[in-house]
Structure formats: structure tokens, C-alpha cells
Amino acid sequence: MDTASLLVFISLGVLTLVPALFVVNSRSIVHAGFWLLPCFLGVAGLYAALEAHFFFVTQLLIYAGAILVLVLFALMLTRNAMNPTESQSNRLKPVAALVCTAFAAGSTFILVKHPWAITTDTPKPAGVQTEALGNALIQNYAVPFEVASLLLLAALIGAIVLAKSDRGPVPEPAPLADLTSGTAGGE
Amino acid sequence: MNEWLLTITILAPMLAAVILLLIPEKQGLAIRLVALAGAAITLPPAILLCLNYDRAKGGYQFVQDFAWVPTLGIRYHVAADGISVVLILLTAVLITGGVFASWTRPDRTKEFLSLLLLLVGGVFGVFAARDLFFLFLFYEIAVLPMYLLIGVWGTSSQGRTKEYSAMKLTLMLMAGSAFILVAILGMYSYSTVHTFDMDALARTKFDAGFQHWAFFAVYVGFGILAGIFPLHTWSPDGHASAPTAVSMLHAGVLMKLGAYGVLRLGIQMLPQGAQDWSFVMACIATINVLYGAISAMGQTDLKYIIAYSSVSHMGMVMLGLASLNPVGINGAVMQMVSHGVMTGLFFACVGLIYERAHTRIVAKMGGFATKMPIVAVCMTVGGLASFGLPATSGFIAEFLCFYGMWLRYPALALIAILGIVVTAVYVLRMMQKIFFGQFNPEDYHELPDARTTERVAISVLACCLIGIGLYPKPFVDLIDIGWRTTQRPDVIEQARRQHVADATHPLAALLTPSVHAANSETNNDRNRGLTR
Amino acid sequence: MTDYRPLAPYALLTILALAVALLGTVPAARRSGALGWITAIGAGLALFISSQSPEATPWLGMLRLDAFSKACNVIFLAALAIISIASTAEEHRTAFAGEFYALLTLSTVGLMLMGASGGLLTMYLGLELSTIALFALAGFSKREKRSAEAALKLLILGSVASAVVLYGASIVYGVLGTTQFFEMSAAMSHPHAAGASAALYFGITFIVAGLAFKVAAVPFHLWAPDVYEGAPSLVTAFLSTASKAGGFAALLRFLGSVQVPEDRTISTLLIVLSAISMIVGNLSALSQKNFKRMLGYSGVAQSGYILTALAAGSATSKTISSALMYLLLYAFTNVAAFLVAQAIHDATGSDQISALRGLHRRRPTLAFCAVVVMFSLGGIPPLAGFVGKLYLFTAAWDGGQRCLVLIGALTSVAALYYYLMVVRQIYLLDPEDDRKITVAPAIVMAISLCTAAILAIGIYPRPFVTMGEAAASAVQVTSVAHQREAAPVVAASDVSSPHLRP
């Protein structure tokens, strides 16, 4: 990897991770929602750097565009969400931070040491890639693709059940938040 | 027909237990009759087993054997040798007596009798099983109902609640089961064929190191049930809290399961391991005999006295087993039978006395012989048998146990014999106080003698004690043939070879009093005995 | 041409979920309890179709519909059917009945996919589908704060766990260049893979850890007691049996078909998980006063028992068959246990163990079933729990895990204590309130079904052992046979993500 692409990668990584920290730390849940935007953009940038054009566009359109807006809408329509509430963390925060840092260091060590097989092929043009992806999704990967739709169905039904509550706030954006935290949590 | 006898004996009580659950609680008489049928129906097969056992042929007979779960190497395999048939007969007699003894039990009779019969089905199963899986299964079926039987129907005494006793008993016995399970799994995995079948495992040659530890696990596991010191503590509490019929069966038969397990799984399947541990076993058994007797002397509660005397008598059984020679083992099994009948009789009598006098404290009793003569006579017979008076079954059994031990470790035999003296002291003192002291009419307005059913039950048991004492030959023969013809093939082979080399008389062992010498001669002793 | 017939049960359940959700809008269907019966019948039908359908590996092994997946389906669908029957009881005909059964069915589909997965991708999606449906189900008792707490806890910790699985899967993919199990085996035996071991084990450890969360093994068990306690008992019944079985199915499929070379790391991991699960689970359960919470900790310990077999080596057929058989009988046993909790809760409004006091006078049938269930959990013969535990321990012993067997046997004794404390309440103590309690016939029927199954498996385990053995050989046979077909899928997988191709 040459220096230029390394620099791009590092800056995009910072763009993704630093806002992610704010997402989990900010006292106001609405602020947290806004912090998601740079985070999503950073991920989109990573796709672009990898020349995965279709994913780049999708990430921008669906995550940064649709999902984020939806999340913010939901938050603003929920009572009390606008006011800053309690801290997102408890007194175990330093311990957690310590464990996470140690873990991150360890995993980085292991992953950096590994002789990754890096392809030397030049990526195919955008059209070819997208076509191949489309074909894969309805051929060999049809099952995961269809299951993903079932998953969304389950999430929808679950959200409706939880949202139509008798009283008290309920974790309404639960299923949606999960889809995003799946990527954020693993970093 | 013969091959079904064992299965009938096992299943009849269990079937009766299930039928009982289906009868409405209000049908008191029907419940009792079904229970009695379930118990008594095992008597004819048990007697037939003893009569039909082919003494000329020996070995395991009445075999029923088919695959149960083939891929796991589990077979339904039941068979009985001379030892098993004798113990099955004992169990059948005791459960019939036990049902009679609980004839007047007022509350939740249905469940009580159902559990009792389930338990007995398990006991029959253990004595008949030739597959480790089924043996363990039946063993647990025999042990577990005890929790409910004591916990629900027991009595709290001396500051120990019945729930405490029940829980202690169950947990200690289950801890023993854990050891047994580990030993069984070890044997199962050791055999190349991966089978639970005991006949197949008996042909497997376990190496010495494996036998050493496997025998230890078997000894501790089954030993807890047999009441070995210091793991006997569940026994006095449990027996004292249990209702009459349960005490009868528990002290009479269940504790024998422990000794039987050590004999079958330990001494027969792991002979080398048994040799390794025989001295330890003998020492612990000696402690049991003395400790049980001395503790019994210090008790005031009648049930505790009997419970500790059971610990002492089970010590004699273990003493016989630890000798590892045919004399001792015959004695051990005879003692199992003798003590089974005797302790059944004891607990039945104690139950009767308690029911009428409403106390179990010996000091408060006196002169009961005039009021309940039958009970007095029967209990005295039991007492005499317990310290081995000649002409009672106790004599032949205890004599063989001590003689067997004398052949192996004379010093220990001499120490253990002191236990008999102590036993005589506490038994006679107890009898004297209860039956022949001063009767206090103010405390006891009426003390009716036993009812007819109870009278039959205890008299039969007392007659058994004297009958066996006067003519023990059929039983000793059965046990002896059973023991000698069911040895592992390699042990027999070894014995035959040793016999040629060493043809001295078994009594020669008498002349080697040192423990060390006896230890080095272990194989010889054993083989001399085998080929006697 | 792919044979699509084996997919019928999956399609049937999906249609069932949609149909039930739609029918739920009809008030009459909700109030009559018909939805539950429809779900139960649908589950039974799917079970029948699944057992009759031919074996297949459609989409080049993306799904593996074989004896193993069929055996798993038996577990999941039996749990679904029994819980659906129990929830037809009048007390549970809520306004959200349609959604309840739909979510339950969708979760089952997810679990079935985990059992049938041929690769990490299907496995992960199945995991997510089953878990997401369960988030909402855990929060179903809206009037109770604990239920909301349970839902939130499951959501947060569940998301972290799936993120962990995904992270591990991405590393494994990076190292091996494939997500298909049988290709992973082939890639690992490739000489190039030798240098990959550290990162590879790192990734696999993550996958195992994420799945350990699903099966509630220590130290990933902290959610279990809280969620079990807070969620409605009917949901907990599913969560603690079918969902756990799904986690184990995925573990077995993954570790059984991916033959990790020199898997010291993985087996050490499993040994540790197993040992501490048994110890911590059983010791924590000892002091519990709440019945559901106690069952939660006991469930942690039961996972430990199953892990003993897994630790003995995932490749042996005994491991897979014993684990499957245990999961099946555990499904019946634990579903029955939680249904007892539900029945008691309906009658007395309490979840405490002391609420069971004197049950033998208040409801003798239920008391009998509850005692059978407790003894089966404690591993007492002749009940199913005994055979299952013995089978697990033979597998572990054969695999050389003698210490684990010893720990298992000894902790079982401790476990017996708390099961007996429940039996004590039921049988030994007399009730403070002597009146009979009413239990919905549907719940009684479901519990009786479970009790019958416990007795049947315990007395005659042969057909279940045979089923397990067939499943075990299916996992192993495909792992060898498929290596020949490996080539075309590699081509397919590198299209979707061309940059990571080795």
C-alpha cells in the first residue's frame, strides 16, 4: 500500500471512529443521532477508496440519507427525546475503556502480523462489478438475500409491537439501531 | 419361563406403583390391596429363583438379554447368580413386610406406597442387572424416592428436621453416584468395544493403574450407601427420620446395594484394584464395626440405636468383603441377608412401639413385655441375632466374616471382634430397659399388642432369623456357588496356575499374623480359597 | 437444476408467519385462540414435511438440508408447537396475538437456517433473524417494567454478540477467502494457511464467543437470568430451549464441518467455557429465590454440560449426536419448566419458588409433572435428562475430557440440591392456602405432552440416538464430499468482494 492511499485510509478511519465515539458518549440522544452522519460518511468514503462504487452510493443514499433521517424523525416525535438525559455510561466506564484499549491493541497486533493476501488485480469497472453483484444476489446468494428481507419483516413487526405500548417510553427504534450497531460495535 | 422371572420381579412392583397413582385417594382398601399384591407377587418368583437355580451349573442363570440402544452399547441384560437370588428373596420378604407395616398409615397412603414399590423395583433391578447402564439406572431409582419418602412422611427428632435428613441423605448418596458414574464411564471407555455389558467388560483386561483408581471410585461411590466411615453420617439421621416401612427397606435392603455394588463392580470386575485397597477397606470396616457399636451405646433414641447398629453391622459386611477370600465374602453376603431380616424386624418393632407408646426414648420405657409379648419376643430374637448368638442367622454370618478377615488380616479381625462385645452390651441393656424394667401405668394407659397383620409380619421375620441360623446350608451353598462360578476368566485361570504352585492349606494364613506378610500373600490367599 | 423441494418447510413457515400476522387483525381469530392452534398445526406440518423431504444442498452448499438440519428442525419445531399450544390459553390472548405467533415463527425460521447453514453468511443471517424476533418477544408483557428491561438487555447485548460474530466472520473470510464451511476446511489444509493461524484462530474465537452468548455460556451468560426473569414465561421457554439449541446447532455445524487443524486453541476455549459454565451456573442457581431466575442459571449450567461434549472434539460423531439428543430432551424439559412457571404465575401472580408451595394439594397433576421435570433436569433416571447427560459424558470421556466429566458429575450433585428445593416446596410442604388453583387446559396439555416426551426419551432413547447419529454423519460426510464441488463457489464469492481474494 502506498503512502497516499494509507493517508486516505487513516483519515477516513478517523472520520468514522471519532464521531462513533461521540455517538455513544453524548448525553442527548438527538446529538448522538446527528453524530451518526459523519460516521456513515466515513464508511462511505472507505467504500469509495476501495472502488466499490455500488456500496459507496448505497451507503450514502440509504444510511446517510434514508435511515439517518428516519432515526432523527423518530427521535423528534418521541416525547422527552429532545432534552438532554442521563449520562450514557456508568462508573465502570474507565474499566471498560481500559479493557477495550487492551483488546484493541491485542487484536491490532495479531491482525497486523498476519500476511494478508492482497490482490494485484485492478478492480473491474463499476458497471461490471454491479452486474456481478446483482447476479450473485439472485443466484448463489439468493438465500441470504431473501432471509435479509425476512429479517426486516421481523424487525418491522417487532417495532410495531413495542411501539404500540400502553404507557411509558419503549425502545422503539430498536431493530433499526441494531442494523447500524452491527457495524459500529465491531470496530 | 425362567428367563422372565427376573423381569417379572423387577416390573411387578413398578407396575403396581403406576396403577396405584391411577386409583383415587379415597379407595383406601383398594390402594392397600394393590400395593400388597405388587409386593407379594414378587415372592413366588423370588422363591422360584432360589429353587430353580442350577447349583451344578453355577454362573449367571435366568438370562434375558437383548439390545436396547445398540449404538451406545446398552443392552437390557438381566441375570442372577447365587448371590443375587438370595438378595432378591430377602428384598421380596422385606417389601411384603414393609407393606404390612404401613397398613395403617393415614395420610397420602397412595403416593407413599407407590414410591415404596418404585424403590423396590429399583432394588430388584440392581440385583439382577448385568448391564452397567441399567444397574446405575435401577440404583438411582432405588435411592431417589427416599428423598420424598423421608421428606414427606418422616418424623423430625432430636432437633433434626425430616427435610434436613432427607436432603442430607439424598445429596450424599448422589455424590456417591457421581463417583460411580465416573467409574462406569471409565470402564465403558476402556473397553475397546465400548459396551456397558458387564459380561463383556468382565473379559476386558483393565490395567493395574486404571483398576486402582476405578476401584477407589466404586468403593467410595457405593461405600457411601453402605455407610462406610466417615461417610456414614447420612445414615443415622436418615433412618431415625424415616417412617417404619422406609427404615425397614432402607436399612434392610438399600444399604446392601452399596455392599453389593462394591462386590459386583469392584471386587469382581476390578480384582487388582480390590487387592490394592483391601487393607484400607479392612481398616475402615473395623472402624465402622467399633464406632457404630460404641455410638449406639451412647444413644437414647431407639431409632438412633438401631441406626448406629446398622452402621456397625454394615461394617461387618464390608469386613467380609475386604478379606477378598471366599470365606469372608460368603460371610458378607450372609450378613447382608441376616442383617436385612434383623434390621427389618427391629424397625418394624420400633414402629409398633412408637405407635403405641408415642415415644422412642428408651429411658421412658419399661416393662413392655407384659403388655406386648409378641413384639417383645420377636425383638429379643432380633437382638440376639444382632450380636451373633449361635442358632441365629447372625452367628453364621458374623463368624464367616471374622474368619475371613482372620485369614487375611488377623490383627484387624481381633480388634473388630470387640465390636460384638459392645453390641451385646447395648442390645441387652436396651432389651432389659424396654421390656423387663418397671412398667409405669401412669404414662401409658393402654399398650395393645400387635395386630394380626403386624404379628404375622414380625413373627415371619423372627422365624427367618432362627431358621437360617439353624440350617444355613442352602443359603451358604447358593452364595458360595454364585461367588465361585462368576469370577472373571483371567482370575480363575490365575488361580488354577497358582494352585499348582502353592498347595498349602488355607489355614496356613493363620500362621502369618503380620499385616505386611498377609498383604504380600494376597493373591495366594484368594486363590487357595477359590479352589478350595 | 436445483431441487427446491427440501425448502418446503422453510417456505411453509414463512407463509405461516405472514398468514398469522394478517389473521391477527381479525378480532375473532385473536380471541378464540385459533391463531395458536394454526401455528401449532403449521409447525407440526412443517416437521412432517421436513422429515419426509429429500436431502439437498441448494445454491452450491449455501444451505445444507441434510439429516443434521432435519434433527435440528425437530427440536425447533417441537418447541414452537408446544409453546403455541400453551399460549392459546385464555390469559394470553392479547391484542398482539397475531404478532406474537408471527415473531415466534420467524424466529424459528431463523433458527432452522442456523441448523441448515452451509456457510458463515447463512449462519449469521439466521442468528440475526432469530434474535431480532426475540427482542420484541421479550418485551411482550408491556405492563411489566421487567419485561421492557429484558427486551432492552437482550437487544443491546444481543447486538454486541452478533457484531462479535460478524467481526470474527470477517477476519476468517479475510484469512481464508471464503465463507462456505467446506471450502474453509479445504483452504485451511492449503499450505499457505500455515502462517494464517493466529489471525484465523482469533476470528474463530470471536465466532465461538458470539455463539456462546446465544447459548448463555459463562462468561457470556450475564443477560440470561435477567432476561429469563423479565420476559414472559412463554417467551422464555422458547428463548431458553429453541434459541439455545440454535446456537449449539450453529456451533456444531461450524466446528463439525470446518476441520480446524491442530485446534488446541479452540478446544481449550471450549473446555474453559464448559468448566466455568457448569461451576458458575450451578453455584449461582443455589441461592436463587425466583423460580425463573433459578432456571436461568440452571440453563447456563446445562449449556456447560453440552459444551463438555463439544470440548471433546467437534469432529467425533458422538459429540454431535449426544449434543443434539440433549438439546431435544432439554427442549421438552425446559419448556415444561417454564410452562409450570407460567401456570403458577397465572394462578398466584408470583414467580417465586415459594409460590409452588404445597402444589401437590392444590393441583396434583401439575405437581407430578413439575417433579418429573425437576428430576429430569437433575439427571435422575429413568427420565430423559439422565440418558442425555450420560450420553454427553460418554462423548466427553471418549474425547479425553475426564476432568470435565468429573466436574460435571460433581456439580450435578450441587444442582440436585436446588432442584430438590423446588420438589420440597411442591411435595414436602403443605400449602398456606389449601384451595385448588386453576390452570388453563392448554397449558396442562402442553406440559403433559412434554412430560410424556421426557419419560419416552428416558425409557427408550434408541430412536433419538439413531437420529443423532444420522445427523452427525451428515455433518461429517458433507465436509468431505463437498470439497470436490468447491471450485465454482469460489468464483461466485470473489465477485461480490474482489479485493480480498487471496
Task: Write up this protein.
The complex is a heterotrimer of chains A (187), B (532) and C (502). Chain A has 187 residues and is mainly α. Chain A has one domain (3-84, 93-184): Four Helix Bundle (Hemerythrin (Met), subunit A), CATH 1.20.120.1200. Chain A has 7 helices and no strands. The radius of gyration of chain A is 19 Å and the shape is globular. Mean pLDDT of chain A is 80; it is low at 167-187. Chain B has 532 residues and is mainly α. Chain B has helices spanning 5-22, 28-40, 43-52, 82-101, 109-128, 132-143, 145-153, 162-190, 198-202, 208-226, 234-241, 244-268, 271-297, 302-323, 326-357, 373-386, 393-408, 410-436, 452-470, 473-485, 489-501, 515-520, 522-530; strands at 61-69, 74-80. Chain B has a two-stranded antiparallel sheet. Chain B starts with a helix and ends with a helix. By secondary structure, chain C is an all-alpha fold. The longest helix of chain C has 32 residues, at 145-176.
How do the strands and helices of this protein lay out in sequence?
The complex is a heterotrimer of chains A (187), B (532) and C (502).
Chain A: H1 3-25, H2 29-49, H3 53-77, H4 93-113, H5 126-138, H6 142-163, H7 174-184
Chain B: H1 5-22, H2 28-40, H3 43-52, E1 61-69, E2 74-80, H4 82-101, H5 109-128, H6 132-143, H7 145-153, H8 162-190, H9 198-202, H10 208-226, H11 234-241, H12 244-268, H13 271-297, H14 302-323, H15 326-357, H16 373-386, H17 393-408, H18 410-436, H19 452-470, H20 473-485, H21 489-501, H22 515-520, H23 522-530
Chain C: H1 8-23, H2 27-32, H3 34-52, H4 58-61, H5 67-86, H6 97-116, H7 120-138, H8 145-176, H9 181-189, H10 197-214, H11 223-230, H12 233-257, H13 264-286, H14 291-311, H15 317-348, H16 359-362, H17 364-377, H18 384-398, H19 402-428, H20 441-459, H21 462-481, H22 486-496
